[in-house]
Amino acid sequence: MAWFSNDDVAEQRRYLLRFAQLHLRDNARAEDVVQETLAAALEQGERYSGGASVRTWLTGILKHKIIDVFRAGRREKTMSELGGDEDDGHDPDALFDAAGAWQTAPSSWGDPSKTLEQKRFMETLEKCNGGLPDRLAQVFSLREVMGLTTEEICEQLGITPNNCNVMLYRARMGLRDCLGKNWFDGGGRT
Amino acid sequence: MISCKEVSRLVSASLDRPLTLRERFWLKLHLWRCGPCGNFAGQMRLMRAAMRRLVGGASDPPGR
Q1: Confidence class for position A77, pLDDT limits 50, 70, 90
Q2: Domain count, chain B
Q3: Best interface-test mutation with B: which of A16, A53, A108 has the largest number of B CBs within 10 A?
Q4: ipTM
């Protein structure tokens, strides 16, 4: 039986769109890759063995398409553009004094399970993620949303492991800064 | 002793790869004495859990 006959395609599409939006941060592009994914899935329909869930299978196709978009984007840009692209004006080193101590000591963010239950916190997180510079956001979402290892990210995007680690660190520090300002210290928290 | 700055990098690295014995030792020693860095580590854990949740119950935990 074909995959689309016993599953709610609209439901799968919603999930794929969400997944693509988190990576691409652009609704039109996300719609495009999801459309391509569903088209490819229709064509390969007979190859779906029923082993993995339909969602896992579709997401697998989508992952390749998202990485293709990232790679194409990187090829289009000159090296100088890429350099500037990574710089969000937040140098993590500025968070520390000359001896490497915190300029402002990190505070406790409270009970994680309570925080995660709050819809508005998740919206703030998505907004903050959307505000990261493109290159940082790509590496970060490949790691944290897609779950690729750093080795896989390096291989897919053609970057060095060191560069990858630095970008993940900068992305985390940037996201932390944004969440601190807009949620934990900024009065978003209820 | 390692600095808070180095600790922040190690905590980030620990989310992507297993730390070496030496790294784990210095990290633990520092976290034992430094409350702010403990808070920082908690913030990083929360961010990871939250990112996974964004996509709507992501099933596979990201590998190391």
Answers
A1: low
A2: 1
A3: A108
A4: 0.88
